[in-house]
Design a protein that fits this description.
Blueprint lengths: L1 E7 L7 H9 L2 E7 L2 E7 L4 E7 L1 E5 L2 E5 L11 E10 L2 E11 L5 H8 L4 E7 L10 E3 L4 E6 L2
Parallel strand pairs: 1-9, 8-10
Antiparallel strand pairs: 1-4, 2-3, 2-7, 5-6, 7-8, 9-11
């Protein structure tokens, strides 16, 4: 099953001290694959899009999602968007956003599993204080839909 995460409203694009600190700190956001944040995007980019494949399978009548992009135990699977400062080749993570598969409507998840399209999540990446969005991101702060590949 293919998943696309579309991030808009990145926190480094705004004015003010928080946005300036993110730019000066060379802050990036990436999707976490196992223990590493990959496909890093600057905090002041216009948008960020990540697309990857996850494994889905039926387990006792329920759809389970797994693979190197997926974290958590069965029944509580999720994706991480990781925020950190980039220094040379290093990435020092300081915050993460958690996108729960349990928040995806079941019919949408099953349609993506069946290959009817790509499961796409869209979210703003700036929190209410102007910083990087972190913690669990729930609808309506993230919207899920099925899109053409």
């Amino acid at each position: 099953m293919f998943v696309r995460i579309e991030g808009v409203d990145l926190p480094g694009r705004g004015g003010g001290a928080e946005a300036a600190a993110l730019r000066l700190g060379n802050v990036h956001v990436g999707v976490q694959r196992r223990a590493e944040a990959v496909a890093l995007v600057r905090a002041d980019a216009a948008s960020a899009t990540w697309e990857f494949e996850v494994v889905t399978r039926e387990v006792d009548g329920l759809l389970d999602v797994s693979g190197p992009w997926v974290h958590g135990r069965p029944g509580a699977r999720f994706l991480y968007l990781s925020w950190g400062s980039v220094d040379g080749d290093g990435f020092a993570m300081f915050r993460r956003a958690k996108l729960m598969f349990g928040d995806v409507p079941g019919a949408l998840l099953r349609a993506a599993h069946a290959g009817d399209g790509v499961l796409a999540g869209r979210l703003g990446l700036t929190d209410a204080a102007g910083g990087p969005r972190c913690a669990r991101v729930r609808p309506p702060d993230i919207t899920w839909e099925l899109v053409a590949p």
